[in-house]
């Protein structure tokens, strides 16, 4: 007989309390089990030591705990750790721990594969297989928090949704996971330490603003010229820069939170002064900063990092115009853990 038991972590606290009441128990029992599932990240009903044996058996008869499993962990020479994460249906995603002197950042996935088609990204080649559930996102964070405590002797400090997938195309589950991560019953982390990175889905950026999400927003811009952006990120045809700009203005008017633009400069694609000028102009619409990120080759030879002169030209032009710019070197390249390289090669 096929196992049709429900994933207990799909239940809200209220639903769990109601379940216990319907079983003739106290609603408080629901609270206790909820704490085991979320605060204490229990993997098995038998871990729930303050719950009676009979109740644990009753839970086993009705539910399963669908937990992720870190299948393979790779450590880079620069300290970066990549986890290949097996999901309950045997699909795999990847998440990355990025250590610096003072911080540990978790880079987590939101989808198996990706629904978008950025030409320079390894994940895009996988296509979207499914959205991750809130608990699958949350578990990646817990796994990295544990690794941070184990290997770096400190808790996780920041989270970026820059792993596999487009978080705003899995909006509800990502926001449910953020709720759990920030809630005192989960990890109690400040939403200010969480960054959602998007390729730019205007409608969902507005929704994020309307929902008063306190997280930070990063946008993978890569070009401020429609004709160029559409060739490297074809969905730009559907969500052109004008719509993106309008949604970002809306986001800022509601949240007063500065946006980060992620930007790669490629040889013969966006390395001219005209490209840099377009970026400067785009940066004037909403308070922002620019992260110039290094390109990590994905082996198809269509994209090449621009010369350092071109990157310097961008940096100078942005700085002359009073725009904050950082140049970010990638981490974890030796284990294919860098931006845009997550493609389940380790699985
Ligand atoms: N879909 C979201 C989050 C995942 S990608 C987004 O697009 O923002 C995380 C970051 O890695 C994005 O800024 C993306 O543009 C960048 N990226 C993708 N492929 C890359 C590559 N090959 N080298 C460097 N960065 C890459």
TrEMBL record:
Gene Ontology CC annotation, any one: cytoplasm
Miscellaneous section: Reaction proceeds by a ping-pong mechanism involving intermediate methylation of a conserved cysteine residue.
Alphabetic keyword roster: 4Fe-4S, Cytoplasm, Disulfide bond, Iron, Iron-sulfur, Metal-binding, Methyltransferase, rRNA processing, S-adenosyl-L-methionine, Transferase, tRNA processing
Lineage of the organism: Bacteria, Pseudomonadati, Bacteroidota, Flavobacteriia, Flavobacteriales
Protein name (Swiss-Prot/TrEMBL): Probable dual-specificity RNA methyltransferase RlmN
Entry's EC annotation: 2.1.1.192
Origin: domain of life: Bacteria
Cofactor requirements of the protein: [4Fe-4S] cluster
GO molecular function: 4 iron, 4 sulfur cluster binding; metal ion binding; rRNA (adenine(2503)-C2-)-methyltransferase activity; rRNA binding; tRNA (adenine(37)-C2)-methyltransferase activity; tRNA binding
